Amino acid sequence: MSSQVNRGKGIGLSLAVGSAIAFGGSGVAAKPLIEAGLDPLHVVWLRVTGAALVMLPLAVRHRALLRRRPALLAGFGLLGVAGVQAFYFASISRIPVGVALLVEYLAPALVLGWVRFVQRRPVTRAAALGVVLAVGGLACVVEVWSGLGFDALGLLLALAAACCQVGYFVLSDQGSDSGDDAPDPLGVIAYGLLTGAAVLTVVARPWGMDWSVLAHSARMDGTEVPAWLLLAWIVLIATVVAYITGVVSVRRLSPQVAGVVACLEAVIATVLAWFLLGEHLSAPQIAGGAVVLLGAFIAQSSTPSKGSAQPVAGGSPERELSARGTAA
């Protein structure tokens, strides 16, 4: 029995690492498409719509969620899918992929700020320490001593992505439960993608997209790569496989362990962008990124049990959703 448990945890850990790698590679694959001529919103629309079509059978299987959890589905689709990804892809068109993702990792700290100053509920000292570390680390990442080393609008777009995560966290916490009535996370993800695709269709207006870009090549630090191959990676690996492996891994691991592994996403994205896109970060920025991740982890691991007066925070909307699915 013990060997089976250890084997299950080993499989869960492998899936969690695989999910982090898949999620971390989305920005690295998307940026060359944007630089090749596609609008960031069009890339997001392609990603979300393609993934929604692949996961459509899951939506049909869990169609009861439309009646039981319309607010959760709308919140995940609007904020966790459309909002986060649109702002993130827009930000990486102006700033390095690793920096944009590190700014997003302020979300757990921002959730705690919402709880403390808006809801006026107490937070633990460890959580407050996590916020301080995350903010201090971010100051190093953006090199505030040089008057911000990156495009200010790009940083604001990345921060907007983090704020969309906060909005989803708050909505998810208000509508969360456990036991047999807990929604299946894969069903929520499927409907979230469908909702996000519908919203992005109106916003992005894909009928005006330059489809010819997908028939040519994009450049990754001087190397020609077929555009369709990058799109296939974004849709199938960085979205569908990433979400599914993330959910399955959390069901085999504790949410705390999965949260630690989730922090690898930012590290992987930064390393991939370094080698594949030539986006090098300085030593102070790398150190600051490590501090941001440490602060995000402390803020996340300070989450108390359900029903207490403390906040709920997580690494990203899909991680939060997956963690809730373990209660079922």
Cα gyration radius (Å): 19 Å
Average of pLDDT: 81
What is the percentage of strand-forming residues? under 5%
Major beta sheet, strand line-up: 1-2
The quaternary organization reads as single chain
Reported for the largest beta sheet, the result is:
2 strands, antiparallel
Short synopsis of the structure:
The chain is mainly α and 328 residues long.
Would you kindly provide a written description of the structure presented here, covering whatever features stand out?
This protein is mostly helical. It has 16 helices and 2 strands. It has helices spanning 2-24, 26-35, 40-54, 56-61, 65-68, 70-92, 97-104, 107-118, 125-141, 152-174, 185-204, 227-252, 255-262, 264-277, 283-301, 317-325, and strands at residues 217-220, 223-226. It has a two-stranded antiparallel ribbon with strand order 1-2. Helix 7 runs antiparallel to helix 14 (264-277), helix 8 (107-118) packs across helix 10 and helix 9 packs antiparallel against helix 15 (283-301). The protein is globular, with a radius of gyration of 19 Å. The two termini are 22 Å apart. Residues 304-320 and 322-328 have low confidence and may be disordered.
Topology:
Layout (H helix, E strand, L loop, with lengths): L1 H23 L1 H10 L4 H15 L1 H6 L3 H4 L1 H23 L4 H8 L2 H12 L6 H17 L10 H23 L10 H20 L12 E4 L2 E4 H26 L2 H8 L1 H14 L5 H19 L15 H9 L3
Antiparallel strand pairs: 1-2
Helix pairs in contact: 1-12, 1-13, 1-14, 2-12, 2-14, 3-6, 3-11, 3-12, 6-10, 6-11, 7-10, 7-14, 8-9, 8-10, 8-15, 9-15, 11-16, 12-16
